Amino acid sequence: MKKVVISLTIAAALALGGCANALTTEIKTPGDEPAASEDMQQAPVEDTQKPVENSEPTAPSETPAAEPSRQDGERFETVIILEGMEETVQYEHIRNEAIGIEMDYDYESFVRQSKPHRERFISGWDDPENPENYLEVTYSSKDTDTVAASISEELSKEYELITENFTLEGAGECIRIDASEVKGGGFSPDMLQMVYVIPASDGCRIAWAHYAIEGAEGFGRRFAYMVNTLSAIKRTGTNELTDEQAVAAIQKYCYSANPELEDKVKAEEYPIYWDVSSSDEQEIVVLYRSYTGSINRYYIDRSTGETYVTEFVPGIIEEEQRTDETLNVWDYVD
């Protein structure tokens, strides 16, 4: 088993600028483009043990949270190591109690997009609507091993994976999934992914880094430092979708996928509608009847918003069949 500790080097004298409000969608122009790095003294340190597949259940590591040492929105300087050199970076401390995390992020290099169901940190050099280099943090009510298995199953379609136990300074032991080799190819793909599945008493937290291969030693290292500061805290509020939100979100999703659909609805030439097919404490099923006559059902996790889709075409398909289509309904909630 390969265990690694990432530690942050804190500057000898912190320049505290007071409390600032947490930024959500403000876009900042980064200073210098994040530098690539070939080695990082505080990055994961190689040991002689071969990574092994995680086979034992990972116990929740969350402990009762004390008062935070930093306030939400507090900004400060710290030092990281890139290319063997010290680099002073500007961090902001954030708390998102809806998903149950607190962490620090480099606000000069990344734009924060905050929603109740997720935190996303996008490179200031990327298009915020279609980013390549970003870190996304979410919550799942499922246990760590179940979530890690599901993510691994999906990533293994395109990548050779290294799955290992890993230790974060803020969150303790987690499962780390490294997707940095093309499946069956023996070489690196254009886009790399690194996933941390962090156990907590109410499920788990998922920190998912995406970055281009040319940014592996720059963005990849910066994301690693940020994830190392993450810790799980108690979630507050239900943060659950209502039936009405689910229907409106699926309608918005369908309009975004087919820009002509809204005109067809207004024309009233075809029977087109969205409705709740079933609903319980965990799941909402929204039915969409298309103008083509096909019936799609969207199976929505009421808490996380994760959704899969089935299709039924009367006279052609005898029963509904699951498709490859997935989405997160929270992305379409106004």
Give a topology summary.
Blueprint (H helix, E strand, L loop, with lengths): L74 E8 L2 E12 L4 E6 L3 E6 L2 E6 L10 E7 L3 H12 L3 E10 L3 E11 L8 E10 L2 E10 L6 H10 L2 E2 L10 H15 L3 H7 L5 E7 L3 E7 L5 E7 L4 E7 L8 E8 L6
Antiparallel strand pairs: 1-2, 2-3, 3-11, 4-5, 5-6, 6-10, 7-8, 8-9, 9-10, 12-13, 13-14, 14-15, 15-16
Throw out a few tags for this protein.
334 residues; mainly beta; disordered N terminus; single chain; globular; five-stranded antiparallel β-sheet; seven-stranded antiparallel β-sheet
Task: Put the structure in a nutshell.
The chain has 334 residues and is mainly beta. The chain contains 4 helices and 16 strands.
Major beta sheet summary: 7 strands, antiparallel
> Which quaternary structure do these chains form?
single chain
Share in helix: 10-25%
Order of helices and strands: EEEEEEHEEEEHEHHEEEEE
Round the Cα radius of gyration to an integer and report it.
Answer: 22 Å
Number of helical runs?
A: 4
Shape designation:
globular
User: Mean pLDDT, as a whole number?
Assistant: 82
Structural class computed from helices and strand pairing: mainly beta
Strand content: 35-45%
Unreliable runs: 1-66
Number of β-strand runs:
16
Widest sheet: strand ordering: 4-5-6-10-9-8-7
Q: What is the CA–CA distance across the termini? A: 44 Å
Structure explained in plain terms:
This protein has 334 residues and is mainly beta. Helices cover 13% and strands 37% of the residues. The chain has helices at residues 144-155, 219-228, 243-257, 261-267; strands spanning 75-82, 85-96, 101-106, 110-115, 118-123, 134-140, 159-168, 172-182, 191-200, 203-212, 231-232, 273-279, 283-289, 295-301, 306-312, 321-328. The strands form three sheets. The chain has a seven-stranded antiparallel sheet with strand order 4-5-6-10-9-8-7, sandwiched between helices. Strand 9 (191-200) and strand 10 form a beta hairpin. The longest helix is centred in the last third of the chain and has 15 residues, at 243-257. The radius of gyration is 22 Å and the shape is globular.
